[in-house]
């Protein structure tokens, strides 16, 4: 690990060599897709840099996917999200170019169901988008999709965060730019 002049830490984990099904060697990430990850630091307890040390654990700041299992702990766990090409979401339709002015519908995915529970991206795609389209809107502005542990305490974004409650990046991509062109 190295730290630059601005205090930004960087670590590079080299790929490993693996044999594919056809027997050829190829380089693959050393960390497997969906593995839980965290960073461990050994720091001095006082700011002067002297005395007793303590170990702290952190989720990588640029994690693409995090999970929380309240049956185990209230803490979040980082997950290395690096799906294979077959698992990645690919757009099925061309990007929509609006022919008219934007009519923007502001939506909160997690509170888009009539039931007293957290809605999912897949449900939103199936139920809310057709209603929004029928109302004449041509653009959806998704609110509160980013999640941060502190924000969850305030209940802003905590319920709809993309990295939580089983939602993965490909779930949000399922209703991306081409959603209104679906028949």
Automatic annotation (TrEMBL):
Alphabetical list of InterPro entries matching this protein: GH (IPR017853), Ig-like_fold (IPR013783)
GO molecular function terms listed in the Swiss-Prot or TrEMBL record: 1,4-alpha-glucan branching enzyme activity
Protein name (record): 1,4-alpha-glucan-branching enzyme
Recorded GO CC terms: cytoplasm
GO BP: glycogen biosynthetic process
Pathway in which this enzyme or protein is active: Glycan biosynthesis; glycogen biosynthesis
